[in-house]
Amino acid sequence: MIRILLVDDQPLLRSGFRALLEVEDDIEVVAEAADGRECLALVREHLPDIVLVDIQMPVMDGIEATRHIAADPALSHVHVVILTNYCFDEYVFNALRAGAAGFIVKDIEPDDFVHAVRVAARGDALLAPSITRSLIDRYIAQPLPKEADAEPAGLTNREREAVILVAQGLCNDEIADRMVISPLTAKTHVNRAMAKLHARDRAQLVIFAYESGLVAPPVR
What we know:
Elements: E1 2-7, H1 11-22, E2 27-33, H2 36-46, E3 50-54, H3 62-71, E4 79-84, H4 90-98, E5 102-105, H5 110-121, H6 129-140, H7 157-167, H8 172-179, H9 183-197, H10 202-211
Parallel strand pairs: 1-2, 1-3, 3-4, 4-5
Helix pairs in contact: 2-3, 3-4, 7-9, 7-10, 8-9, 9-10
């Protein structure tokens, strides 16, 4: 059973999301919150698999709530998915940097919304290659403050290569083709790199790769 915590300051939207999810046999909405502070209390109480959280809310916004969840070792299994009105904006990027696993646009088709929840529950980041490339093009290509010159220490050459390919927007099958290995081996390299770099998901690998200088932003 996939356990969901809904976080949005608009009761009507929360009701709509709940209605879509609770008709599914394998999904349960365990609680609802109207702001980030309430979200943190409920996520620790219910330990959901997925937190669907709006970005702009009173008291505490979704980015700050995401940062607290990502920093808590007791919540390492919890995947935060951002709910947004826009396909991609700076708020979403900041949420990904804070530890979100991906995002869902609020006007998504109902079937796609439910599918996205299941993808997140599997531990896969909700960043299709096209979205990863959009991330790179629109935000990482702009100057960003570096995180204390983080070095990809401890990575093998193959893991480093896999991180670079993830940062270029490739999925595991494409990484496998590029590295001439099986998709399972590609996934293993990616997962080991995430573990060594303490990255929660592929989104964090992308951000690390650029902010550490492992990959250079595209030249415009």
